[in-house]
Write a structure and sequence with these properties.
The complex is a heterotetramer. Chain B is of the alpha+beta class. Chain B is built from two helices and six strands, in the order βββαβββα. Classes of the chains: A alpha+beta, B alpha+beta, C alpha+beta, D alpha/beta.
Amino acid sequence: MPEPMLESRSALAGLLAPGHYGANGGTGVSLSECRGRTLLSIAARAGQTAALSAAIEGAFGVPLPMQPARTAAGSVAFIWSGPGLWLGIGSSTDDLARRLATCAPGLASIADLTGSRTTIRINGPSAREGMMKLVPIDLDETVFSTGSAALTVASHIPVQLWQTDDTPTYEIACRRSYSVSLWQSLTEAFAEYGYSVAP
Amino acid sequence: MRLPCPHCGERGNEEFVFLGSADPVRPADSEAPIEDWIDYVFLRDNPAGANRELWHHTYGCRSWIVVRRDTRTHEILGAEPARSLPPPASTSAAK
Amino acid sequence: MTPQTQHTSQPFRLASGGLIDRATAMPFTFDGREYYGHPGDTLASALLANGIHLTGRSFKYHRPRGILYAGPEEPNALVELRTGARREPNTRATVAELYPGLTACSQNRWPSLAFDVMAVNGLAAPIFPAGFYYKTFMWPAAFWEKVYEPLIRRAAGLGRAAREPDPDSYERSHLFCDVLVIGSGAAGLAAARAAARSGARVVLCEQDFRLGGHLLSSRDEIDGKPALGWVAEVEGELAAQSKVRVLRRTTVFGLFDHGVCGAVERVSDHLDEAPPFTVRQRYWKIVARHIVVATGAIERPIVFPQNDRPGIMMASAVRSYVERFAIVPGRRAVVFMVDDSGWSTVEALQRAGASVAAVVDPREEAPERARSIGDAKVLCGATVTGTRGRLRLSGVTIKDRQGREQYIEADLLAMAGGWDPALHLTSHLGSKPKWDESIAAFVPGSLPSHIDVAGAAAGRFGLDAALKDGVRAGSEAAHHAGFASVSLAPPAASALPMHTRCAPSWRAAKLDAKSFVDFQNDVTAADIALAAREGYRSVEHAKRYTTLGMATDQGKSSGVNGLAILADVTGRTIAETGTTTFRPPYTAVAFGAIAGRETGKALRPTRLTPTHQWAAERNAVFVEVGQWLRAQWYPGPGEADWRESVNREVRAVRSTVGVCDVSTLGKIEVMGPDAGRLLDFVYANTVSTLKVGRMRYGLMLREDGHVMDDGTVARIGEDRYFLTTSTAHAEQVLRHLEFCHQVLMPSLDVAIVPVTERWAQLAVAGPRSRELLAKVVDGFDLSTAQFPHLSVAEITICNGIPARIYRVSFSGELGYEVGVPADYGDAFIRLLVREGEPLGLEPYGTEAMTVLRVEKGFPATGELNGQTTARDLGLERLLSTKKDYIGRALQRLPAFNEPDRPVLVSFAPVNASDILRAGSHILDLGAAARIENDLGYMTSAVYSPTFGHHIGLGFLKRGRDRIGERVRAYDPVRNCDVVVEVGPPCRYDSDGGLARA
Amino acid sequence: MRYSLAVLLKNALSGHAHWSPAWRDPEPKAAYDTIIVGGGGHGLATAYYLAKEHGITDVAVLEKSYIGSGNVGRNTTIIRSNYLLPGNTAFYEWSLKLWEGLEQDLNFNAMVSQRGVLNLCHSDGQRDAFARRGNAMRLNGVDAELLNGEQVRELVPLLDFENARFPIKGGLLQRRGGTVRHDAVAWGFARGADQRGVDIIQNCEVTGFRIENGRVAGVDTTRGHIRAKRIGVAVAGNSSRVAAMAGLRLPIESHVLQAFVSEAIKPLIDMVVTFGAGHFYISQSDKGGLVFGGDIDGYNSYAQRGNLPIVEDVLSCAVALFPSLSRLRYLRQWGGIMDMSMDGSPIIDRTPIEGLFLNAGWCYGGFKATPASGWCFAHTIATGTSHPLNSAYRLDRFATGHIIDEGGKGAVPNLH
Ligand SMILES: Cc1cc2nc3c(=O)[nH]c(=O)nc-3n(C[C@H](O)[C@H](O)[C@H](O)COP(=O)(O)OP(=O)(O)OC[C@H]3O[C@@H](n4cnc5c(N)ncnc54)[C@H](O)[C@@H]3O)c2cc1C
Ligand SMILES: NC(=O)c1ccc[n+]([C@@H]2O[C@H](COP(=O)([O-])OP(=O)(O)OC[C@H]3O[C@@H](n4cnc5c(N)ncnc54)[C@H](O)[C@@H]3O)[C@@H](O)[C@H]2O)c1
Ligand SMILES: Cc1cc2nc3c(=O)[nH]c(=O)nc-3n(C[C@H](O)[C@H](O)[C@H](O)COP(=O)(O)O)c2cc1C
Ligand SMILES: [Zn+2]
């Protein structure tokens, strides 16, 4: 038997050198990658959406969002990903897949997507202004606020994003193969305000 | 151009892929008269005015939606998810 | 005088007044000479301050031309701004903001602006009327392209484009608002304030670098205070509100469907160079629920003989240069007006110390105002019949009411021809402007409910009207957007009420072949008459025949005069004649601004595979496959060219083992109790009969009967299938599945989830692949008995890492594909290579993969080109006869069943050293190279190290009957013609024993 | 009045006061032998060739607006015959041959400029597909050259070879391809037809067909009823609307295609260049404007205007391909209504209604077809049968499966 474990590698490995970049000493926003998350695609079986949401609420304390939004309890979050479809997020210790399988047998089709998306957190006073260069949707706080989520496109890259606090903080996820291109778009967009990269 | 996705809200048309008219109904099965098939696959009303058309929210929720739109003015007259529409004849046959 | 003071002096600058900063002198050069201006200047105003009117040459006759306007509607004063890679031809001096060190050059002249040899065109003008080129240059036939056309092309065009890549950067951003106000004149400011007070999200765009519109060049008062004070007050109020955004230097260039507007902000054009991290221009894509167009009005020139000399200027521009820029554009002026706003110009000139030698007005009586006009000679019922002066106006000939002509010396002629609402944007969505006889101008036609027009843009001239209308439009827009309107009393204006007895600017004089209508394109009144005479009577024909309104200014100044003259010569009314169509952009937009960052390498995102970093370290040569970058081959030490590398890679797979990243294949998981039913419907062959743990080849057709894609289908669980698609068709196939489910079979209980990026998928192929994989799987039995060809299993590797293993071969050898979570792909390939190298492993790229599959006769992109059928590919056995599926019905059409259709075969050169090339056509030996003899074509061709010669795949008529025969592979575009022998598609291990072993 | 330099000079002496109209403006007669619906390039060319080749001069062209108001007056003017499939190549080559003699034939300078059409390729697969096409052209006796990257660089040095997202690997060059002055084509054919007796009737919209016993008898128009024995419909983007008046449904959708022109500049781009890794093509007009375009907007439309996503795409591709164009400005954008057929190829054929003929489905490539289309349509109308050159362009090919799908895109019009 060779080496027992393989090392996991981020698609952005080598790109996220901590430091300050761009204008203004890099204080506009901070960018960091959200690593180590379990991602699951949760699809409700026909006619079972309500039952599935109830089962999940029972197990995790939050229901599934029924519109483009995010519900979260601790490190577990559910993000609307289309009608009858959610992205389940958990930390590696949440054991999300097994808990879902046990709480909702026959109610959902689940596929493991861990590692298939790169998620970047953007936080700071210029986050909203900068994000408007990337995505063609309205992020004004009256329209898109903490708990909101959307599927859209940034420079030809399909993305999913959601807001996690009022700073504001956004998390933007793209398919893994697009990570470097998305990172380049983000850093170009935020250079005007200055950004820091956090480990 | 802005299209109202029934799930995601109003979005720019760059997020969508257009397929064509939503009117043609797939014949009940492959043994249906060949004329019906030619009609379904190739012939279109192509109206100047209200048109029911299929769009796919490719960069959004990936739903197929039926949009009613005026082809002269581009005015949007309505939109609904394709899957909520009464099933076309062929579904029963496929079942 | 020291040279310094000589240079800094601006002889035509007034000692006081204006919105310029006299404390700072800014040097700039025009045509190589240095001058000075001030912050607040445009290039045009700075030139005028230095007494320079001559700034350009016209398009066709190369006539000397001067500055006509003070805004973006300028047709004449076009310059090449900046130099080198930043050179911008055709830049309007009237909008170029002055910055220290600005460099500009006149254009379309040789050798110099003052002496331009092409001005001989002007002498030949009689033989170059509108459309002359359609009537001549036809003899001898060959001369058009060899002689005439190159000459015409060289003479045409205005400035010269840069020839190096643009060093500046651009970006796009998005804005959403309840109310977009376009224009910051009295109407726009009033509208923005009213909308903002009601709580709406407001965006105000102003193309100028200062807010205020006409107020910047007037002495009007609002609410008893100077208008500029009111402007500052509103500006302050707007700036204080977080829901309001004011964008200066931002032109809204187009209105598009459903409230989408395009705008360009010139972020750094007023600077020598964009500061670090700052773009030159930003393209704003604005989505507005309501739009208030408050774009003002554009003053119309008067058409009269020789109305185009430098020194002839619009009356409103003269006002603007005097009041806003503190310049006196001439010492001795004549004012020619058909509209009363010209009186303000008379007053402004007099205030600036210029003498007004005469006021010429074809109307019969002067208004009240004329009485207090000092010593200016007021000639009512008079007209201007001609002008003099080569490079600058020297005098004006005037014919008075009695028909007597007099010549008056003057260096400035201001013309006030009336006003045209700047309604261009309102036409972008298809609304036709309508003629309003009461103001002798076109006004916006009926508009979609989310667009309103206010102030001069709506034909409501006069400051009072603009303010009232702005308040109305702003509150209504906010109201429509769902905000409670707040009642707001419009401010009161002191300005003189406008009276409307404007006379036609195109009938103020007797017209001739030197009465210019379109200044830039040299279209004269005579040209328009000629067009009508020749039958180009429709306004659209006249435009195209004469090129009226087709220059860089898009007829902002010439449009109405032109069509009014056309109406006169064709005996129709202006309303019957109609206008041509205004189209975006309102003013011309830099390509780079719209391209933004999405150009160069960033034109499209680049998709990288999970093993990219490793491959790069291994010096892989990458190839673009759609948006993906894939390793094409891995050069080895001492290898002379790519072919050697590929041969080595192929041999390794055939003899030991190779590994290839195939993660780019589309991967889709289809789950749920009805998954099998859906897949039976989308695949031509049956899927639902697969046993769990098994997989098969699957063929998808389009509904029109042709092949869409192929791939594999694996049954992972009772209700779970895993599909692969070709890299190229991944998105199309996914969308197609979603279509079949959501549109055709919505009642099926199925979930379709793309999982392409979940897996780093590595193909491990070759006789020793099993041996290699045995080292990494966690105790999984890879033997054929336990895990035969076309099996799938969910396993773990390397102590517990989840993985999927597929026994499948695209090379014909014993082969597997292993999927590991994408983040492990990098480590996994490193591990495989480390463990495999002692076994003889070579990583292989897409090139070797192609060789391997061509040897096996497997179709790929070249064969699945959208034009081929299952039968063409020899895959008819996959067409189920037991079920309905997409594409089945049309298999019945005659064309699908013709025996003559070219079918898939392979080719090998008879002379083993001959090279085969894809794209060759197939002919019978001895047949003439004519299309009637065309038998088919080659779709793929590779050098096969296995066979020691090239082999190809392709389609050949009746190919199956011709195995073993010789034909020609004819490739004239590459000078090749090779005798080849026809073979079956599969040349390597045709019974498939190796893959099953 | 014949055009020549001498005539031009003579008229110059009289201040151009004696030019006569290029075509008359007659009142419609009550009846014609043949009516052509649509005063675009194809309709006018059809009338011209009916008169010239078949001696049929009792013809009216009915145009709902001004002649040339449709696609002939709003296209990007590219002509070429670099087609792949049998049925297309010979037809388009015949068209190119007609272009080559058109000015002398019409006595009207349409500025046919054979400056070359270069299609760039960016991958080996694309190069092979170009080779297949180029070879098919050569088999048809058409000029075609396959260039490598270096040859392309020499020909068009302003292209980006350093920083391209999709590196340029070569190109397919047809030197005899080029551009033609769009409006002049409509005007030249109109003048030629008028001189041979054809009535060109503008502002005359066809609103219905009179059909008696399965045969056409005439049309209703906004200027009254007009009888005719034969009617040819050549209304491009409006084909479905007009066909519907005769109860026909067509394998066609109408889509908007946008085009753009830049400010005029001194000569910069010498030939027609098309991008192979995105939708973009460009040429420079005699006036100096860069004329360019890209993909169709992608949705059904009868409005002659489009939206921003295509504008963005086109200009991104422009700057990507030619980085030095970045600071140039575009001046105007407009749209035309394309008759997008289900296989991307046209129809020139009889219809199930006797005496009614159809010319449609030109997608965004019908300008180059104008002379041959008119020539073949005239033949079909005059003789009642297809000429071999248009024999593949049958209306019933969809029912037999003999589709002509150059791109292999299938029955989705917006993909062609
Ligand atoms: C932006 C753009 C770029 C293009 N680029 C190229 C190119 O580079 N090369 C190329 O080969 N092709 C190009 N094309 C395609 C080409 O222009 C068209 O295929 C071709 O012009 C169509 O034929 P036509 O000239 O007869 O059409 P049109 O000029 O559209 O003629 C049809 C006429 O029918 C009239 N009509 C419609 N309905 C009625 C009615 N009921 N009664 C009376 N009259 C009616 C219309 O008003 C119109 O004048 C382009 C098209 C567009 C829009
Ligand atoms: N006869 C006359 O004397 C006469 C005639 C017309 C107007 N006026 C004066 O003009 C004013 C009318 O007020 P108003 O507000 O209607 O017009 P305005 O001309 O004062 O303001 C229009 C503003 O819109 C801007 N603009 C135009 N197009 C734009 C675009 N596409 N994008 C961004 N900005 C754009 C202009 O730069 C200008 O600042 C009054 O002061 C009135 O007295 C006088
Ligand atoms: C090849 C070509 C070149 C053109 N060049 C110009 C031009 O230099 N200036 C201009 O204003 N319009 C130009 N146009 C666009 C026309 O003005 C007009 O927009 C187009 O013919 C569509 O007509 P419409 O806008 O009236 O609907 C050009 C059009 C074509 C087809
Ligand atoms: Zn959606």
